Amino acid sequence: MLVLAFDTATEVATSALVLDGRVLGERTGSARALLGDVDDLFASAGAAPADLDALVVGTGPGSFTSTRMGLAFARGLGLALGIPGAGVSTLDALAAGQPGAIPVIDARRQEVFVAGPRAVSPDDLDLEPGALCIGSGAVRYRATLERHGAVVPPDEDERHVPHARLHASFAGEYADVERIEPIYVRAPDAEVPRT
């Protein structure tokens, strides 16, 4: 089964092409570069979108706009090709990359997204001494987390990235792509003005 997996919820967007559990290629970049990265994956693997059997998309939590971009791409591609998809939590994908670690995603507004999912101040995390924290929130709030006894790998460590190959490895049941829902922990920053 050929699966295209991608996640655009954090500052580092990832995409991977996976055939029967074997990673044919993986890219990291930005959400804006996703289409180009996916095109490169197909070219490198000698495959085409019509060869796909399914999609897996990261559902957040993370940036509202970036998460929506990923879901829109998944829905558009899935509907155009008539293939099913699955959604995977970005927090779950991070955790899969380092079992036992605590995934922490930057939520802006001086908060982080953590398991639950929920948005909290980094100071309000209840961490055991020596707890390993990974993700964009762990990098941004390194000093705070380390002050609370956590261990945060160096900024450039790959464990901070929600790799798309991990999404593909534990996607649940595939279904209609229109049924995949984003994980929004709070309301978006932008609001429609009331007149």
Shape: globular
Briefly note the structural class of the backbone: alpha/beta
CATH class of the largest domain: Alpha Beta
Total domain modules: 2
Q: Main sheet, how many strands, which sense, barrel?
A: 5 strands, mixed
- Over the alpha carbons, how many angstroms does the gyration radius reach? 17 Å
The CATH level-2 architecture of the largest domain is identified as 2-Layer Sandwich
Helix content: 25-40%
Question: What is the CATH superfamily classification of the largest domain?
Answer: ATPase, nucleotide binding domain
Low-confidence runs: none
Strand content: 15-25%
Average pLDDT, rounded to a whole number, is 94
| DSSP summary: helix tally | 6
Element-by-element helix/strand order: EEEHEHEHEEEEEHHH
Record field, number of beta strands: 10
Instruction: Give the N-terminus to C-terminus distance in angstroms.
Output: 51 Å
Describe this entry's structure for a reader.
- The chain has 195 residues and is of the alpha/beta class.
- The protein has two domains: 2-90 and 162-179, Nucleotidyltransferase, domain 5, CATH 3.30.420; 99-158, no CATH class.
- Helix content is 28%, strand content 23%.
- It has helices at 34-45, 64-81, 90-97, 136-140, 142-147, 164-169, and strands at residues 2-7, 13-19, 22-29, 54-58, 85-88, 102-103, 105-108, 111-114, 118-120, 133-134.
- Strands 3-2-1-4-5 form a five-stranded mixed sheet. Strands 7-8-9 form a three-stranded antiparallel sheet. The chain has a two-stranded parallel sheet with strand order 6-10.
- Strand 7 (105-108) and strand 8 (111-114) form a beta hairpin.
- The longest helix has 18 residues, at 64-81.
